[in-house]
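Annex B.
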Amino acid sequence: MRILLVEDERRLAAALKQLLKENQYVVDVEHDGEMGYDLATTDSYDIIILDIMLPNMSGIDILKGMREQEIQTPVLLLTAKDTVEDRVVGLDAGADDYLVKPFDNKELLARVRALTRRTGQISGTDAMEAGPFRLDFTTRTVTRNDEPLTLTAKEFQLLELFMRNQGKVLSKEIILDRVWGPDADVIGNAVENYVHFLRKKIDEADKSSYIATVRGVGYIFHPEPQS
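Response regulator transcription factor: predicted structure tokens.
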């Protein structure tokens, strides 16, 4: 599960990131409202945790902008305000849950787990499809035109990342961060090697590749093979 945490209190953000990582979540952190909005509306997350009071753009405005773009990612609002009126404003803006500071870590984790269940209900995360490919997250299997493909765990993660971001250029740095993790000790041309391995397994012999190289930048996935 990938989580975006937008929180301007840096010590709190660092503590929450560590807590979530210890519970097997992949966490991106942003301290600025506008930067948080950019990530929330251009990247793919399972849950977004938003502080309300943020520099440059409030959590409420981020949330409203997401919902106007029909981005239905579950959102947990964090705030120091605990009046009924404040909660109504957040929920009316499209929040899925609301947690008042200070809070217990166990309660935060319980609410995140509840939202992960909601993620599955909203987006059907048991499976994902793009072009001829179908990923089944329950069985961790992949098919192309209903024919099974044998991928390693890393290749599965890499294809999932590409399918979630089809039509978007992904830099090697982003791929390393998303597939191997920001703290991974990766040596050499890991991204290039794994993209090569994945291409050999997913591409059809008589067609061009589904994954195109953008020279000097990274890679882009198309649901139809590109010449």
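The chain is about 40% helix and 20% strand. The mean pLDDT is 85. Further annotation is deferred to the next reporting cycle.
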